[in-house]
Amino acid sequence: MSLESRMEGFRPEKYLTDVIPHSCGSPSCPRRWQLRSSWSYRLEPESTMLEKIRKALTIRSVTVREMLAEALGMFVLMVFGLSTVAQVVLGNGNYGQQLSINLGFGIGVTLGIHASGGISGAHLNAAITLTHCILGNLPWRKLPAYVIGQCLGSFVASATVFAMYYDALYDYTQGNFTVTGPNATASIFSTYPAPYMSVLGGFFSEFVATAMLLLGILVIHDEKNNEALKGTQALLTGLLVVGIGLGMGMNTGYALNPSRDLPPRIFTAIAGWGIEVFTAGHYWWWVPLTAPLVGSLFGVLIYKIFVDFHNKPVLESGNEKGVMESSTL
Questions:
Q1: Measured on CA atoms in the order 172, 280, 201, 79, is the torsion positive or negative?
Q2: What's domain 64-316's superfamily in CATH?
Q3: Integer angstrom CA distances of residue 94 from 187, 263, 300
Q4: Is residue 279 a contact partner of residue 265, using CB atoms and an 8 Å limit?
Q5: Which residue in 55, 63, 116, 163 has its CB near the most CB atoms, within 10 A?
Q6: Do 184 and 284 touch, CB atoms closer than 8 A?
Q7: What is the C-alpha R_g of the chain?
Q8: In which region does residue 9 sit, left (phi positive, over 0), alpha (psi from -120 to 50) or beta (all else)?
Q9: What is the pLDDT of residues 254-290, one digit of tens each?
Q10: Predicted local confidence at residue 219, as pLDDT
């Protein structure tokens, strides 16, 4: 029997389970079948488990995605920030100083912005979100989602740092978690005023520091003015926070952010510090909530009065550079 007759009726697909049709698709093509290499399976996203998981978990609601982005960005910010505070306090100054805390929060801000900026605009601050809503840059209906995401990320970050440093906390305090005194540790998580500060003085300190934060953000992002180079905004915002900590952090710990202060305070009340976290410092807890809200609005107002209202937008590529998106003020 000739080779041709033996091959007649031969169908490689019956014997080769690892074959694919040739791209031409012609039945008479001699290269109709070719062996599929083992790695070609991995190149088909539909056949991967990761792709199936991605499709199952994909969230279509834009608002929910923004909320999750804010939660992740805030989590990153707070883990870096709170862990540096914990290391400085629990290490008795042997593992860092005040500058370490400033740098930790600055790095956290930079990475938090990169984590969420493309999705939610990386507010990472309830005061900034409220200011966006008041200025009409963000719909009011999105305010709860943004704030919930920020508070969720901040709360989980507090629990994460608490778990990571629990043994050190226990060793440092002998199991007695206190808000005030020589071995106080509540300040690892939330801000408290210095002993010499009055409530009014502390409010003014937080007010000015938050106003400077918003002024700095506007300077960095204002396309009608001398904006920062594209891609450097997150780094410069982190450096801005470092600068505020270096110059305005002694009096009150520069909370600047209700989403940064209240969730960790609630966590410490639950985790063993008790209700004193709300009564200490002449009931200080409400100041980091309200002063940043007022300071944020004042900072934007000052920038607009001195610069923005008089600076006409420049047409570029058919669009006005001065048109603000929801992620800018």
A1: positive
A2: Glycerol uptake facilitator protein. (1.20.1080.10)
A3: 18, 28, 40
A4: no
A5: 116
A6: no
A7: 28
A8: left
A9: 999 999 999 999 999 999 999 999 999 999 999 999 9
A10: 95
Q: Using alpha carbons, list the distances in angstroms from residue 238 to 66, 201, 207.
A: 21, 26, 19
Q: What is the pLDDT of residue 261?
A: 97
Residue 35's φ and ψ, nearest 5 degrees, are: -65, 140
d(Cα 285, Cα 269) in Å, to the nearest integer? 12
Alpha helices, H only, 165-286: 166-173, 199-221, 233-248, 258-268, 276-283
Burial 11-25 (b: 16+ CB within 10 A, else e): eeeeeeeeeeeeeee
**Residue 128 confidence class, pLDDT cut points 50, 70, 90:** very high
Q: For residue 77, what pLDDT is reported?
A: 98
The distance between the two most distant Cα atoms of the chain, rounded to a whole number of Å, is 106
Q: CA-CA distances (angstroms) from residue 283 to 49, 208, 266, 316?
A: 52, 20, 14, 52
- This prediction has a pTM of 0.80
Q: How far is residue 193's CA from residue 185's CA, in Å, rounded to a whole number? A: 14
3-state secondary structure 14-53: HHCCCEEECCCCCCCCCCCEEECCHHHHHHCHHHCHHHHH
- Are residues 288 and 254 in contact, defined by beta-carbon separation less than 8 angstroms? no
Looking at the chain, the domain(s) classified CATH 1.20.1080.10 span 64-316
Contacts (Cβ under 8 Å, ≥6 apart) of 235: 110
Residue with tokens 């600068």: 243
